[in-house]
Amino acid sequence: MTQSDETPDHGPVRTCLGCRRRAAKRELLRMTAGLDEHGRQVVVPDPEATAPGRGAHLHPTTECYDLAVRRKAFGRALKLGEGPSSAPVGEYVAAAGTFDPPDQESEH
Ligand SMILES: [Zn+2]
Question: What is the 29 CA–ligand 1 centroid distance (Å)?
Fold first, then answer.
């Protein structure tokens, strides 16, 4: 484990890949390595934080996403080498920014 900077008083803290600020883990979107339909490595959002393996964290905002893209932080953080696509994460934060959760179930 390299991420052992948890403080019992405030819960787990992680560093945002975009703005590099530390924030409570619950405020950040977890991301992991995944595969797209062509079998290429991509960065995918893991909002439930259930995916096994190495994860990286980001404020779920387009600002922090853009910063992380510009500094190619995803590949480094997830050990994917340079230039993995992070489009799924981009789509996720863009959707999250609209405050219109697409997975909201309508019950009758
Ligand atoms: Zn951030």
Answer: 10
Distance CA 41, CA 89 (A): 13
**Residue 7: what pLDDT?**
52
Ion ligand 1 neighbours (CB, 5 A) are 16, 18-19, 59, 64
Q: Provide the percentage of residues in the chain whose pLDDT is more than 90.
A: 68
Q: What distance in angstroms lies between residue 104's CA and the mean position of ligand 1's atoms?
A: 26
> Residue 17: how many CB atoms within 10 A of its CB?
27
Which pTM does this prediction carry? 0.77
pLDDT digits (tens, 9 = 90+) for 48-68: 999 999 999 999 999 999 999
